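Try it yourself: sequence plus heme C, in.
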Amino acid sequence: MRESFALAMTLAAAAVSLGACRYDWVTDMWFQPAIRSEEDPRPEPEHTIPLGVVPGPADRDEAESLQNPVRADAASIKHGAAIFQDRCIGCHGREGHGGGPVGKFFPPAPDLAYATVKARSDGYIFGTITFGGRAMPPMGDGLTPHDRWDVVNEVRVIQGFVPPEGR
Ligand code: HEC
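Structure, out:
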């Protein structure tokens, strides 16, 4: 009786260690604390703000009263114009006065020098780039706030408020 019990224990132990061998070394890289590429980023703990991130406006209405912190100098306008050429001309046209090719199958985008658009605040234009408009999709993906203010400065050039060489 005692012998068979010992034998059973030995077999059980062997099974466990065999099992351990069989699975652990093959899969031990599978179960690890590293985040897998298809997983969402780890959620931020409550009441924390990631380093280097300043809470921004929640929508275009909230952005409307923001002050433009970036001076419309030559460097800002050059950068803003490059982003404008990348992201805006398909709809607003190469010069920003409307007539971009996407207007053939999308609500046509307005001339950015229209009186109504000229009357918008810098913050409102920043908010339009960030959150989109009634028909315009959000265009701020991958752009830092500084990049977006550069685009606002370029829009002010298109509207004739700022000379093309900056100020
Ligand atoms: C897919 C087409 C499309 C792209 C790309 C696009 N826009 Fe627009 N945009 C529109 C349309 C359509 C409107 C008018 C309707 C609306 O407000 O949504 C508009 C309106 C605007 C307005 C006026 C908003 C107002 O209410 O006065 C501004 C300013 C503007 N766009 C800036 C930009 C800038 C800057 C970019 C590039 C970063 C850009 N748009 C890219 C389609 C586009």
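One thing you can check immediately is this: The CA atoms of residues 8 and 123 lie 77 Å apart.
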